[in-house]
Write a structure and sequence with these properties.
3 strands, 4% strand, 203 residues
Length: 203
C-alpha cells in the first residue's frame, strides 16, 4: 500500500506543476507582456511547445494514473489477489517513463532557449534575429542593449524559460522516483491487496 500512497503523493505534485508549465509557456507568446504583431518575431523555441506539451499535456496522463493507483481494487487478475496491483504498478512505471520523456523534452528546449537568448529587433542592423552568442548575455548585462524591441523581452524570456527549466527538472525527478516506486510495487506486490476476486472483502 505504501507504494500506491507514494504514487498518489507524486501525482498530486505533478498536477500543479503541469498547469504552471502550461501557463508559463502561454506567456511566452506575449514577449515583454505585450501582444506581438508578427508571429515570426517570436523565438523559435516557443513554437516547439515544450511547456504546453512536454511539461503540460503529457504530464497530465502520468499524474492521473498515479492518483488512481490507491483506488485500484486488484480485480484485473482473478485468482491472484496481488496480480491486479502488480499490473497497475507496472502500468504506472510505463506512464512515468512517458513523463520523464515529456519533462526531458521541455527541459532541453528551455535550456537551449536560455543559452540562445530571445529573438528581438537588433539595434545594429534593425532586423529581427538572435544577437547573442552562447549565452554571453547571461554573463554581461550590458549586451542586453542590443535588443531594441520588444521592451523587456530579455528578462521575460529568461524568467519564463527558467521557470520551465526548473519545472521540467522537478518533473523528471518525480517521474524517476515513480519508475523506481512502480518497479518495487511490481516486483514486491501489495500484501494488503483486497480479496475482491474471491468476493471475501478486504483482508
Amino acid at each position: 500500500m505504501c507504494t500506491e500512497r507514494c504514487a498518489k503523493c507524486l501525482g498530486s505534485t505533478l498536477i500543479p506543476l503541469a498547469v504552471s508549465g502550461f501557463l508559463a509557456h502561454l506567456l511566452l507568446f506575449f514577449p515583454g507582456g505585450k501582444v506581438i504583431d508578427n508571429n515570426d518575431h517570436l523565438s523559435d523555441e516557443v513554437w516547439y511547445f515544450g511547456g504546453i506539451l512536454g511539461s503540460g499535456v503529457l504530464m497530465i496522463f502520468p499524474a492521473l494514473v498515479f492518483l488512481g493507483l490507491e483506488k485500484n481494487d486488484c480485480c484485473m487478475c482473478c485468482g491472484n489477489e496481488s496480480c491486479g496491483k502488480r499490473f497497475a504498478m507496472f502500468t504506472s512505471t510505463i506512464f512515468a517513463v512517458v513523463g520523464v520523456l515529456g519533462a526531458g523534452y521541455s527541459f532541453i528546449i528551455s535550456a537551449v532557449s536560455i543559452n540562445k537568448g530571445p529573438k528581438c529587433l537588433m539595434v545594429n542592423n534593425s532586423t529581427w534575429g538572435y544577437p547573442f552568442l552562447d549565452g554571453d548575455y547571461l554573463r554581461d548585462r550590458d549586451l542586453w542593449s542590443q535588443c531594441e524591441k520588444p521592451d523587456n523581452v530579455i528578462p521575460w524570456h529568461l524568467t519564463l524559460f527558467s521557470i520551465l527549466l526548473i519545472i521540467g527538472a522537478v518533473q523528471i525527478l518525480i517521474c524517476a522516483i515513480q519508475v523506481i516506486n512502480g518497479l518495487l510495487g511490481t516486483l514486491c506486490g501489495d500484501y494488503q491487496c483486497c480479496g475482491c476476486c474471491r468476493g471475501d472483502g478486504p483482508v
